[in-house]
């Protein structure tokens, strides 16, 4: 058994003992609960600053976070579409990496605690890519809020190992895609800065931004 599998087993074995704990963790692992909560934090950032300068910076942060979220999800899904979905890669190493069976397919359904059984490949974790893409993008602009979002992202990803649908390395793979996505988005925002300023003026004229 690899270290990744041993770590999965240790975290996963924490579950299945207390029903209400499993239900709470299952809620945290839900596809929407934490992501919606994190997006509500972004809504608070967009409208919540007291002065115009902070509000403008926060709104730019939110734009980068939403772009990073979408890009990270797209990047994490790309290998599944282009490699796993293409028969010419069948039997290759890269195919086996991105067509990794879920833990419950290897260890049996008993490892799943109060959660549904996903049917897509386990690696990388799209959820990890999405939530960490959002969190890292905010952290680079606002350390305080970004740190809280990183904690929220860590909770949802740890929960998904706990309920038995991801290995720890799936999470790390998702984080790697998130970092790439955030880097690309920040680079694009820098390259197209004049265009961004023009769009900001339009949005300010429509009273969407300050």
Key terms for this structure?
10 helices; 210 residues; mainly alpha; globular
Structural class: mainly alpha
What's the number of helices? Answer: 10
Order of helices and strands: HHHHHHHHHH
Looking at the structure, what is the overall shape? Answer: globular
- Compute the average pLDDT: 90
- N-to-C span: 55 Å
Would you count the extended β strands for me? 0
Helix content: over 70%
| Uncertain regions spanning at least 5 consecutive residues | none
Percent strand: under 5%
Structural overview:
This protein is mainly α and 210 residues long. The protein is 72% helix and 0% strand. The protein is built from 10 helices and no strands. The longest helix has 33 residues, at 52-84. 36% of the residues are buried.
In short:
The protein contains 10 helices and no strands. It is an all-alpha fold.
List the helices and strands and how they pair.
Layout: H1 3-12, H2 19-29, H3 33-48, H4 52-84, H5 93-98, H6 103-107, H7 126-139, H8 143-162, H9 168-191, H10 193-205
